[in-house]
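Case study 2.
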Amino acid sequence: MKKLIDIARDYKDNLVFKEKQAEALLHLLNEKWDLIKKKKKKKKKKKKKKKKKKKKKKKKKQKQRYLYRPATCS
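Prediction:
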């Protein structure tokens, strides 16, 4: 960034852009642009939250009231 600022100052002072400075500026801008693009790509990747599965309630089986039934007929 310091080089970029220096080149900008030269441009402001002289109002003449030399070819070498212009090429250097373009090169620096391209490098910065590539870095910005890479950072943006990394930001887009986010982990998706897993949805928690709802537990189904199990129906309780009715227990037999009498395990042993006495014989009604004698």
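Residues 19 and 35 are 24 Å apart (CA to CA).
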